[in-house]
Amino acid sequence: MPNWNDIRRDFPILHQQVNGKPLVYLDNAATAQKPRVVIDTLSRFYERDNANVHRGLHALSNRATDAFEGARTRVAKFINAADSAEVIFTRGTTESINLVAASWGEANLKKGDVILLTEMEHHSNLVPWQLIAARTGATLRYVPVLGANAEGGLDLAVLDSLLSPEVKIFAFTHISNSLGTINPVVELCARARARGIVTVIDGAQSIGHMPVDVRAIDCDFFAFSGHKMAGVTGIGALYGRRALLDAMPPYQGGGGMISNVDFFTSRWKPSPERFEAGTPNFADAVALGAACDYLDGLGREQIAKHDAELAALAYQKLATLPGIRLLGPTDPALRSGLVSFAFPDVHAHDVVTFADEDGIALRGGHHCNQPMMRKLGLTGTTRASFYVYNTPEEIDLLVANLAKTLKFFTG
Amino acid sequence: MPNWNDIRRDFPILHQQVNGKPLVYLDNAATAQKPRVVIDTLSRFYERDNANVHRGLHALSNRATDAFEGARTRVAKFINAADSAEVIFTRGTTESINLVAASWGEANLKKGDVILLTEMEHHSNLVPWQLIAARTGATLRYVPVLGANAEGGLDLAVLDSLLSPEVKIFAFTHISNSLGTINPVVELCARARARGIVTVIDGAQSIGHMPVDVRAIDCDFFAFSGHKMAGVTGIGALYGRRALLDAMPPYQGGGGMISNVDFFTSRWKPSPERFEAGTPNFADAVALGAACDYLDGLGREQIAKHDAELAALAYQKLATLPGIRLLGPTDPALRSGLVSFAFPDVHAHDVVTFADEDGIALRGGHHCNQPMMRKLGLTGTTRASFYVYNTPEEIDLLVANLAKTLKFFTG
Amino acid sequence: MSADLSELYQQVILDHNKRPRNRGRLPAANRVAHGDNPSCGDQCSVYLRMDGDRIGDISFDGSGCAISQASASLMTTLLKGRSSAEAAELYKNFHEIVTTGKEPEEISDIAAFAGVHAFPARIKCATLGWHAAIEALKGGPNVTTESHTD
Amino acid sequence: MSADLSELYQQVILDHNKRPRNRGRLPAANRVAHGDNPSCGDQCSVYLRMDGDRIGDISFDGSGCAISQASASLMTTLLKGRSSAEAAELYKNFHEIVTTGKEPEEISDIAAFAGVHAFPARIKCATLGWHAAIEALKGGPNVTTESHTD
Ligand SMILES: Cc1ncc(COP(=O)(O)O)c(C=O)c1O
Ligand SMILES: Cc1ncc(COP(=O)(O)O)c(C=O)c1O
């Protein structure tokens, strides 16, 4: 069991005042903070080992290549991929999903085909599919979310009928960033697989918060960002099944991804190089490896438990505020480490501005989930999202602050 | 005038031994080393200001947004763009060129159109055009490079006839990474512009090494990488003329680039957000801003002079080695800070391995310039490329090492 | 509550937020424009009944934070009866006040919005309704506050 | 010269590099395969004249560093007269030597390549010709050393 109080010391950014109050950082679903060891890994890389990778034969280039490919192996292990060649480094979840949509989509989608999504998708798992649908003539279809406050999760009763023969690919989020819902990804993949449908999981919110095993989940693709899991910004990955990757055309073209270039034609390397054109973001990848070590040091089962306990506590205490509308699952077992809520008479922007006044960092708005918000009759919500360094005391500060804000606006 | 000897102190990585010898880093065209101030800017950002940008209303998010947008303004000033909305952050040169090729190409190219390139392009300014040509039915055409050792540069005599009415876009490098040639970009742009042809400059090798003014050059697009200009890896930019950018479809889809999303359709924000889907690499962008400050502190005119002087010296001294074949311009005024050469009886890999033995970092191979190498009857060359911290003494070490290698292999 | 925050949420603003003036769809409107704030999903539609070049009647509709609602509400009271040129001039003043915190030249409720300048992220909230009104006067249908140079 | 480097560039290697054996196109070839090392542009074609399952004759062609040229040259001398199974076994030995530095069980010039293991980036150079030969034995036309798991 990690000592959760000691953990705060690992994160330099937490030890500051905001508006004269100690910072209470509850915006972890947007981006997580970085432990000292990750920041230092990055600086040390630039101070000692920095050189371009792959095409070099000198000492620094060999060290940089080893560190970069070591990070790939580390990430593969973090998600239990069978083969490190199944891990493609990208800028983050958004680029990973664009890569699948564009590359797999271009090779496999045509008019009449259907792309199945869910109503709770982040714009990053929605707009890329709109773009490839427009290009190929495929159409989109959505698994509905049940309940006036989206408390019912995905409508699994209609799923089998939605997974009709025209459906070629099914993309869904592991954890909703606006509702906190944990989706039954193993079941969703099994049902799709039984019909030969390719599966894509948006793992932005799960990767740093719970154990992730792509082979146990049995998905075809899994996309995630480093910056939401204590890694740095600018790096993330796409996991893909080797057989699917090897049959996909390149995404971007350039140095490093070709096996032969002529003026008029080229041949491609296999995965992962085929999908990593240009100088990869190797330094940030190395720091991502350090983030994997850090999180596994704490234990991802433990992190999941810690975050869920905080969310359950927050849910319970927030429920006492007059008029509050709490979104997402009521059952704590189905909820990840975040709580999303709305007040009838106070807008999320005002709530967030008042929280900031007390040093509390929240997020307010549609959380890149506009269509879902619209269905719920909301323009946005306020979201408190937790991570390893948050404490029950911070939840008390949050609730006290919200009570004050409500009083100010509603008398 | 900067004191060039003091400059070495700014770069922590230089103060180490490789194979028992002081490191002589001559692989700057692959990636440049980072000054302390850039590394520290990055760590400090993560230690104090890190939060997701744009959609936040709390203090850290405001600080992060100001730093990120401040970096955009700084980069815009660095290249003298008229408007910071003309600067799109990307992973680097390769992604910038892929963005133009895919987005501008998709909207503007059709069967019968011609994309004009030059024979000296890096794969990153070649393969993206092959990909969009295959998608749209456009074809490629090349401006020849003159001379058995490519010493003659681009064949300007045939340029006007190559710029025929079918040519819609002309993409070329500012400085060749395999030859060292500085192309006459102002003239190339003027000739293309006179015929209404859009111009794209690959600025990977020029950005950190000389003053760059996109308005004086009068190009439509300019692509570059931060890691080749003392910035960190994972960040670069595309400059584009506002009017062209506003007429282009998005590149990737996702959070941050939409003005409205429905389940079935979306509307886009204007540039630069339209082209920056997902969480941008804001931390590395902030560090790129610091790299701009650092280089402008030294003075880019001075850097260009320093690098060119070293290259001229190297060229002169290398020419004394038996059998050496020196590529690129013989006139030092047309050459940037690198020298590329080949020996008839010793392969570049062996040269680089022997140099590493003396702590000297060189690059050997085709330098992502395969078709050009093939035309020259080479599979590769050895390249020494210089930057602000290199010294004349390092060139003497290089020449002595090469003489030793030659002796070993040729007796 | 800090000085900045009480400057931001002045009585005038709270009052307009609680009891918005000219809210709802104007049945006799002959111009309408719609404003979006894509960062947060806030929306504001402005309805105009133009009598020649004068704003004969005006209303707004939509949802948003206290700042955006109060600003749109106050705006409708200020624009009624004005010409397009006068409206543009008023917006110029308002924009200056919210971006610089400078007091207006004449005594006006607009002064209540001077506190916004200390919260740069909220400037877009304060200008959403005004953007829509100016767009409606120009005859355009849609406007977003997300233009980068805003 | 360091111990590692003199281990890498042994006399056997320098000799094969300077005077390559079985170099050039084999006119009577009934199998050919082409190997690429995309990182550096090195290339190696291997020509086989199969007599049944035996390699009746073999040659190589291409360009590359001393390690890749010497390795291909030595390989041709070792493979002549062997069956596909024997060739595969020899490659297994060779691969083990260049990746681990382990001495071969029997006395053989292959031992000269043990120094490669201290230079991981050069393993691809040493195996380029072998890759092409194995591919030719399988009947395939192209092979690249850039397979990620190499
Ligand atoms: C001329 C040229 N163009 C493009 C590139 C690609 O840059 P990057 O790998 O940073 O995307 C490089 C560097 O490798 C280059 O030298
Ligand atoms: C569920 C979900 N998907 C996708 C994303 C996009 O991730 P990124 O912005 O790192 O690409 C996010 C985060 O914003 C998210 O929460």
Notes on the protein architecture:
The complex is a heterotetramer, with two copies of chain A (411 residues) and two copies of chain C (150 residues). Chain A has 411 residues and is an alpha/beta fold. Chain A has 14 helices and 19 strands. In chain A, the strands form six sheets. Chain A has a seven-stranded mixed sheet with strand order 4-12-11-10-9-5-6, with helices on both faces. A four-stranded antiparallel sheet of chain A has the order 15-16-19-18, covered by helices on one side. Chain A has a two-stranded antiparallel sheet with strand order 1-2. Chain A starts with a helix and ends with a helix. Chain A has two domains: 4-27 and 299-410, Aspartate Aminotransferase, domain 1; 40-296, Aspartate Aminotransferase, domain 2, CATH 3.40.640.10. Chain C has one domain (3-140): Sufe protein. Chain: A (Alpha-Beta Complex). Chain C contains five helices and four strands. Chain C has helices at 3-8, 11-18, 66-79, 84-100, 123-138; strands spanning 31-37, 42-51, 54-63, 142-144. In chain C, helix 2 packs across helix 3 (66-79), helix 3 (66-79) runs parallel beside helix 5 (123-138) and helix 4 (84-100) packs antiparallel against helix 5 (123-138). Chain C starts with a helix and ends in a 6-residue tail after the last strand. The model of chain C is unreliable at 146-150 (pLDDT under 50). Chains in contact: A-B, A-C, A-D, B-C, B-D. The interface between A and B is large, with 96 and 96 residues. One pyridoxal-5'-phosphate sits between chains A (29, 92-94, 122, 124-125, 173, 177, 202, 204-205, 225, 368) and B (255, 278-279).
Largest interface, per-chain counts?
A: A-B, 96 and 96 residues
Q: Give unreliable regions of chain A as ranges.
A: none
CATH superfamily of the largest domain in chain A: Type I PLP-dependent aspartate aminotransferase-like (Major domain)
Q: Can you tell me the number of structural domains of chain C?
A: 1
**What share of the residues of chain A lie within helices?**
25-40%
Amino- and carboxy-terminal Cα gap of chain A: 45 Å
Order of helices and strands of chain C: HHEEEHHHE
Count up the helices of chain A.
14
Bound molecules: pyridoxal-5'-phosphate
What sort of overall outline of chain C do the alpha carbons produce when their principal axes are compared? globular
